[in-house]
Amino acid sequence: MKRDDDLRRKLLAGLAASAAGALAGCTRAMAAKSAEPAPSRRRRKWGMVIDLDRCARCAGCVVACQQENNIPPLGAQAAARTRPIHWMDFLPPASGSFTATPIPCMHCEDPPCVKVCPVGATYQNPEGITAQVWERCIGCRYCIVACPYSRRYFNWSEPRWPGDDPSSLNPDVAPRPRGVVEKCTLCHHRIHAVLEHARLDEELLTDEALRRLPACAESCPTQAITFGDLADPDSEVARLAASPRAVRLLPEAGTRPKVIYLRETK
Amino acid sequence: MKATRGAVVLLLGLAVLGAYAFTQQCIHGDAVTDLRTIGAGGPVWGLYVVGDGFFASAALASLAVGCVIRVLRLREIEGVARMALPFGIAGLVASLGCVLADLGRPMAALVNLPLVGRPASPFFGTFTLVAGASLVATLVHLALTNRPGWAQRAQAASRWPGLWRALACRWQDTASARQRRERVDFWLSLGLLPVLLGGLVILGVVFGVRAGRPAWQGRFGVVTFVVSGAAAGCSLLALAVHAHRRANLFMARTVAVLTALAVLLVVSGEILALRTPYLSVQRYAHALLEGPWSGLFWAELVLFFLAGMIALAMSLRKTVSLIGTATTALLVCTAVSLERFLLLVAWQTHGLGLSWPAGVYRPTWVEWSVLAGVAAAAVLAFLSIAKVCPAGTEAATEAGDPAPADERRRLLVTALCLVGGFVLACGGLALSAGLASAPFLDPILPGSPLVFLAGLLLMVAAALAYELISERPR
Amino acid sequence: MSYARRSLRTVLLIAVVILFVGMVGARRAPATSPRQPLPMSHKRHLDKQMKCRACHQGVEGEAMASFPTLADCMDCHKTPQGQEPAEPEVRVFAARGQELSWVLLNRLPGHVYFSHAAHVTLGRVKCEACHRDMSKVDQAPIEADVHLDMSACVACHRDGNASLDCLACHK
User: Fold this and answer.
1) Range B51-60 average pLDDT
2) Comparison of pLDDT for B123 and B312, the residue scoring more
3) CB-based contact, B40 to chain C, within 8 Å
4) What is the per-residue pLDDT across A6-60, written as a single tens digit (0 to 9) for each?
């Protein structure tokens, strides 16, 4: 009922806005464009490095991600139907050269999923995160089909929490309803919190504060996962990404991932 | 075309079953389907999208064939063009039904697509072009084409003369009116042709170009999709126009050529896929050739081959039988559905870029029922539209004296509609493309996709204005 | 037309009107009007030149603006303040040692992230930009006073050169 009201209000608001005239919209948009300041600071570009030679394949990152991001535990029905949601997953051991690899969203610089979304529910944010605004998602699953890494998940049914108790959820991450697509956000809520506190305390954000920021990186016992600003040449993550051991998944897809793997070539 | 009462009851039953299955899906979510998480055992797009691809491509292809016939003024096979209109409308409605059944949040889609739809997405392209423009333009086309027939029926029919008179919109069988009719027919068909073909190609892109698939193979998929869609549309049209002798021979020849092309494309696509260096493409090709999907793949080839042979035999002997045409249509449609299925679903289970385990897909009763319901509703829609539209209007009644036409007003309104529609459509497209709003996700003007659609509709309305205005009695 | 049919039509018409009015009324009326523990008046506090942050202490440094605790009230109300007949009620709570259970009225949708600190301290947004002028409110609030939709948020973010990134607010 509530959602219906919201939808109706949105539709009416949209119609009213259209009726208000294209002219008003155009002028306002142009004014906004001219008023935009030149970026005084270099844009950040969040990225991640996963060192496969350090990784112990303990899957702690998978569990940490589930906990942090309010991903409902896999029920018996979903398990039987193989409908899991794992923003951070393990590529199964196979004949390929990448065996048992932890694989989050690659946060491509040229993400195919963003291009195909019919309603702009997924987009690349200015700091390089491929984000999903599930409130706008219509559940067409085109992005899932378009992703070469299969790193997007659809909510096949309403999420259920153990004992139907949602009070144990992380309040910083909104649980997703049935019928929408969801994905890894690089723990954007944590980045958000760190940035806001740094600004409130008028401190500079150091690379040390960022390195283990996402839940997966924080939980990793061998510190195989490093997070940070790829555009900052002094950051740990940029230093590792420049290593001769650095490789990217499916380079032939032309997506230019910002999640980079380190591996000794044999 | 006459449908027996039993057939109608069966179709109605199927439609009700489909509606019931869809309510089950609405209540329990998409968990009632057999779609699964991709990479963890299944495809995320299944029967519904296959159905969309089939219905929409068949409808668009047959409408395009009809338009070509009108543009070239092929009088002998005009019956094909006439039948293409109700057929296309039914097919487009069915494809819309399939898409809505597939969406996770159909209500959100009905709000968000008109408000913030992105033309950059092929999905939006299919939605506006296919759903909006083609459907409404075809409805206008249908109404204008049938006015003379309805005017006749208003005089002759004993039941509902008022309805026929209203539908006929003061049709006067004068020389100038007929001239206008032909002119509008030509220009509307010519204008619609690129829209229809564009829609077909965009659908092919949605199906063919897949992430991780090399570009040449995606393009191959698009061509195969378009050709086989044309084969399906033509085979069904052939069935619909079987009564016209000249038309059915033409259609049999067309179907023979198209199925031969489809077989050629499918086989060469498979051979090329087997020979590429890409691991994922090879996995996919082997899954078709000898893996879990091999049964469907070989069935597709055999069905295409058989259908082509029957159509070829009929066109060589120059006698077209109803049974032959019906068999061809059945075989081609099944083969094309299989082609869509393998192009879409097999790719998700066996052709992923990373080494995920292979998936399976066994559609549940809900998916089959919804698809059957949509198909039944489409057939019912076709039958009822065909019943409302008169079969032919060869007999001219009386050539009344030419009414004094208000030429200037007619031309002015038509031109205004065309220009205004064009401006609105371009403006809407530019605004919804998000020009000059780079940092923000939204179109500059919420609802600009609606403006685009309104522009297209206004352009179509120019045809209405051109034909209807001058005939007002003064 | 017979009398019976006419009267039936009238009855139907009345029924429809009643249904319509009822539906509209049901949407307008709050399901249950929440009661605040004290009949406190924002007007009287603000008339004494108090600042919002004196009671809503989280507003400058935290996401939630927070409600005053009993201890915060008792900083001033330990001794009687003014002649308001309801004023001693707060000391009744204090005598019982019962914490004040203020009712939170302004709630955001679950998918929205909003920080008072970011808006008030970093963005220098006035309280009145979203909330009503509390210096005119003489009663304890019983209904939400912030009615923002996304377009209002976006308009202000545009004007103030704040982030237009979806992730700035959507979580």
Assistant:
1) 92
2) B312
3) no
4) 544 544 444 444 444 433 333 334 334 333 444 445 789 999 999 999 999 999 9
Same domain? B28 vs B139: yes
Whether C31 contacts chain B with CB within 8 A: no
Nearest to C167 among A37, A129, A200 (CB): A129
Q: What element of type H or E holds A102?
A: strand A101-103
Give the span between the Cα atoms of B366 and B101, in whole angstroms: 11
According to DSSP, the residues that pair with A103 across neighbouring strands are A89
B439 interfaces chain C, CB cutoff of 8 Å:
yes
Token pair, residue B438, equals 């780079």
Q: How many structural domains comprise chain B? A: 3
The answer to whether the CB atoms of A180 and B354 lie below 8 A apart is no
Instruction: Answer yes or no: do B130 and B185 share one domain.
Output: yes
3-state SS assignment for residue B442? coil
User: What pLDDT sits at residue A220?
Assistant: 95
Amino acid at B390: P
Q: Are residues B341 and B365 in the same domain?
A: no
Structure ipTM over 0.85, yes or no: yes
Residues with Cβ within 8 Å of A150's Cβ and at least 6 positions away in sequence, in order, are A144, B38, B39, B352, B353, B354, B356
Residues B23 and B119 both lie in one domain: yes
Residue B353 lies in a domain: no
Q: For A131-155, how does the pLDDT look when each residue is reduced to its tens digit (9 = 90+)?
A: 999 988 999 999 999 898 999 999 9
Q: Is C18 touching B (CB cutoff 8 A)?
A: no
List chain C residues with CB under 8 Å of A126.
165
C166, B439: Cβ pair inside 8 Å?
no
What is the rounded distance in angstroms from the CA atom of residue B68 to the CA atom of residue B189?
A: 7
Q: Nearest residue on chain A to B117, judged by CA atoms?
A: A119
CA distance A219 to chain B (A): 24
Name the helix (H) or strand (E) containing B372: helix B365-388
Q: Are residues B323 and B417 in the same domain?
A: no
Whole-number mean pLDDT of chain B?
85
**How many inter-chain contacts (B to C, CB under 8 Å) are there?**
5
B436 interfaces chain C, CB cutoff of 8 Å: no
B441 touches chain C (CB under 8 A): yes
Tell me which chain A residues have a C-beta less than 8 angstroms from the C-beta of C169.
none
Answer whether residue B13 shows pLDDT above 90.
Answer: yes
Query: CB contact, 8 Å: B400 with chain A?
Result: no
| CB atoms closer than 10 angstroms to residue A111 | 25
CB contact under 8 A, C113 and A9: no
CA distance B22 to B27: 9
Residues B342 and B411 in one domain: no
pLDDT digits (tens, 9 = 90+) for B230-239: 999 999 888 8
Residue B21 lies in a domain: yes
Domain extent at residue B235: 230-346
Q: Does B440 touch chain C (CB under 8 A)?
A: yes
**What φ, ψ does residue A181 adopt, rounded to 5°?**
-100, 145
Instruction: Please list every residue in chain C whose beta carbon sits closer than 8 Å to the beta carbon of residue A199.
Output: 118, 122
Is the domain of B43 the same as that of B74? yes
Is residue C43 within 8 A of residue C136, CB to CB? The reply is: yes
Using the Cβ of C166 and the Cβ atoms of chain B, whether some distance falls under 8 Å is answered with: yes
Owner of token pair 């039936």? C8
Residues B239 and B335 in one domain: yes
Report the residue from C113, C158, C167 with minimal CB separation from A125: C167
Instruction: Give the residue from chain A lying closest to B115, CA to CA.
Output: A14
DSSP alpha helices (H): ranges in B103-214? 106-116, 122-125, 135-156, 161-168, 175-208
Contacts of B279 in chain A (CB under 8 A): 96
Half-sphere exposure in the Cβ direction for B433 (13 Å, CA) = 11
- A-C contacts (CB, under 8 Å): 51
- What is the structure's pLDDT at A76? 65
What does the pLDDT read at residue A11?
Answer: 45
More confident call, A102 vs B439: A102
